[in-house]
């Protein structure tokens, strides 16, 4: 079972639902190299850099969905290198919600951010 799941039924008009159930899946999805941070969303749809999207994110056991509005800053095409999943990365905007999300993710991933383990993007 996949630990990070995007719901295609909700993926209409640039709106996606993403549930990240484990810290390992969060590590794989988190994109610290983007200014302000970013999150990778598995998706079978084609996406263009700069495309505006809204991601409703649920982290671990929290049932509250965090709305992340941003632009596509990364695209993994079908059959990406190293068997990385198809999808896109959203750069977090400079908003209170996104700043709080970044703090929370960095707290959850504390020592793992310096790891050399592969992620969904790099």
Question: Which keywords apply here?
Answer:
122 residues; alpha+beta; Thrombin, subunit H; 6 strands; globular
**Poorly predicted runs:** 7-11
Tally of distinct domains:
1
Provide the CATH superfamily: predicted glycosyltransferase like domains
Order of strands across the widest beta sheet?
1-2-4-5-6-3
Q: How many angstroms does the end-to-end distance come to? A: 22 Å
Mean pLDDT: 85
Shape: globular
Number of helices, counting only DSSP H or I runs of 4 residues or more: 2
Provide the structure class: alpha+beta
CATH topology description: Thrombin, subunit H
**Content of β-strand:** 25-35%
The beta-strand count equals: 6
Helix content: 10-25%
For the biggest sheet, the summary is: 6 strands, mixed
Instruction: Please write the CATH class name.
Output: Mainly Beta
Quaternary organisation of the protein chains = single chain
Secondary-structure element series: EEHEEEEH
User: C-alpha Rg, in Å?
Assistant: 13 Å
